[in-house]
Design a protein that fits this description.
Elements: E1 18-20, H1 43-52, E2 54-56, E3 91-94, H2 115-122, E4 133-138, E5 142-148, H3 151-157, E6 164-166, H4 169-178, E7 184-189, H5 191-202, E8 214-217, H6 224-235, E9 238-240, E10 251-257, E11 263-268, H7 279-285, E12 288-293, H8 301-316, E13 320-324, H9 328-333, H10 335-344, E14 348-352, H11 353-360, H12 368-375, E15 381-385, E16 391-395, E17 398-402, H13 415-429, H14 434-449, H15 458-470, H16 474-478
Parallel strand pairs: 4-8, 4-12, 5-10, 6-11, 8-9, 12-13, 13-14, 14-15
Antiparallel strand pairs: 1-2, 3-7, 5-7, 10-11, 15-16, 16-17
């Protein structure tokens, strides 16, 4: 059975009032509808997407049974789930040692940066922001410190291997002092930043279309770590738009990896735990085509209010709203909050198979395609990854299966973040069939899985975009053949 955006039914599965959702304003930008390239988002594609993103207002149709909450949360700011389709970590390698006062010395070199990206940082002060942002991310801004340690090191600090622990400022300093003299990496971390950097690098060449304007809003302190975070994103063509919090302390995640590949994580939230909805953030909504919200922000009650206000304003201004699930434990603890945002504002949801089942209150025996179909009754566009088995895109109660892109996996951390960047890239570039968009995302994830580190490298992004542009008619051709299968599982 053939299935693409062209064949989507316009009827809603629910009798609620229908609200037409506009495709992101990027479509109206003249160069994107240029007749010179069929790969750009054309007026036809805009019409197709308009029919896709028809919103159904839903308030009480979500599952209502109770949940058992896991006592041990495994969520991390390092990256989202590893279940992307596959069969530059953007970091600086330095001796980031703490003094007795807990201050950090950070080298600002980056093996993965190109000369052009370094120039982006040097010229930032004289650069002016674009009139519109193709995508704006709202998420946790935390610096990641990652290094290799042995089991004895964990034992000396009383740390349980393979767990995640929230620590205070003093505990963070104690661990960093213990690592004094050790070499480890510092990076502008976070699941959302992985996605945004990959998207900026994919859209950083004028091959598949105009350069993509990518930005992030969040909360960093006025300390050296805050400037480090902003600088790292800026170099990767991701503009961090929020002003630093005066006297604030930037959040960090220390990732300690033992020889058996077990990761022990220590998170210090700092200022990242609170993102305020101020006039600056409000004004950005009218200049944004897609707003993507990181699910980890749902951990903080005050920030949930910011999420709701930002999503409401984004919808009012005609932008699409995307939500990342981020973590099962986070979903379980804030289930109602997630659903309130998803059902009333979200146009796109990103989740792995376990997260999707959690949203649906499905058991682990339920197939991911069932969860994808179910969620697509509430959210217009659902992206569910299932590791080496592939992925699914759900629309209006149906699910399109995306075969995995074969590769030799080295590090699955960050695979889901990379997959999301591919979906967003497809939406912004006007890819007109669902399977083509999913295949594009799967290829991006497979490249990240086949390397060490969570970030899509600059050279790999350039190769991928060249491939996408070269096959710019591929999606349109395949949208009318039987490969876009509706799963019957």
């Amino acid at each position: 059975m053939s299935f693409s955006l062209i064949s989507l039914p316009l009827s809603s599965p629910f009798p609620n009032s229908i609200l037409l959702r506009k495709f992101p304003p990027i479509i109206s930008i003249p160069e994107l509808s240029s007749p010179s390239s069929s790969y750009y988002a054309s007026s036809t594609t805009a019409t197709l997407y308009s029919s896709l993103f028809i919103r159904t207002t839903i308030h009480s149709r979500r599952p209502t049974c109770s949940l058992l909450t896991h006592s041990n949360s495994t969520f991390s700011s390092m990256s989202s789930g590893t279940d992307a389709s596959y069969t530059d970590d953007g970091s600086s390698d330095s001796s980031c040692c703490s003094s007795a006062t807990g201050e950090l010395g950070i080298s600002d070199s980056d093996d993965d940066e190109t000369p052009q990206e370094r120039e982006n940082d040097e010229n930032e002060s004289s650069a002016s922001f674009p009139e519109r942002w193709h995508i704006l991310g709202l998420g946790q801004a935390m610096v990641d410190f990652s290094g290799m340690v042995d089991n004895e090191f964990l034992g000396r600090l009383g740390l349980e291997k393979g767990t995640r622990k929230v620590v205070n400022h003093e505990e963070r300093g104690r661990v960093l002092r213990a690592m004094d003299g050790c070499s480890y990496k510092a990076a502008a971390g976070g699941s959302l930043s992985n996605t945004l950097v990959a998207l900026a690098r994919l859209g950083g060449q004028s091959i598949g279309g105009p350069l993509l304007n990518v930005a992030m809003a969040g909360s960093v302190g006025s300390d050296p770590l805050g400037e480090f975070y902003r600088s790292k994103l800026r170099r990767a063509n991701v503009n961090f738009l929020s002003a630093p919090v005066k006297d604030g302390t930037t959040g960090t995640v220390i990732v300690l990896t033992t020889p058996d590949a077990q990761r022990t994580m220590l998170a210090y939230q700092g200022t990242s735990a609170r993102v305020n909805y101020d006039s600056c953030l409000a004004s950005l909504m009218s200049k944004t085509s897609i707003l993507i919200v990181e699910g980890y922000l749902f951990e903080f009650p005050d920030t949930i209010k910011t999420i709701a206000m930002a999503c409401e304003e984004a919808r009012r201004c005609g932008a699409l709203v995307a939500i990342t699930a981020s973590d099962i434990s986070c979903i379980e603890r804030h289930y109602d909050d997630f659903w309130d945002i998803m059902a009333n504002y979200a146009d796109v949801i990103f989740a792995n198979s376990d997260e999707a089942r959690t949203f649906c209150h499905f058991s682990s025996k339920e197939s991911p395609v069932s969860a994808t179909r179910y969620l697509s009754h509430f959210v217009p566009f659902v992206s569910v990854t299932d590791g080496h088995k592939g992925s699914y895109i759900g629309v209006k109660g149906e699910a399109v299966y995306i075969p995995p892109t074969r590769c030799v996996p080295l590090d699955t951390c960050g695979a889901g973040d990379a997959y999301a960047s591919g979906i967003l890239y497809g939406l912004l570039r006007g890819v007109s069939d669902l399977r083509g968009m999913g295949t594009l995302a799967s290829k991006v994830a497979s490249v990240v899985v086949a390397q060490q580190g969570t970030r899509l490298r600059v050279q790999d992004a350039a190769k991928l975009e060249e491939t996408f542009a070269f096959h710019n008619e591929w999606s349109a051709i395949r949208s009318d053949v039987g490969s876009d299968q509706i799963s019957s599982l």
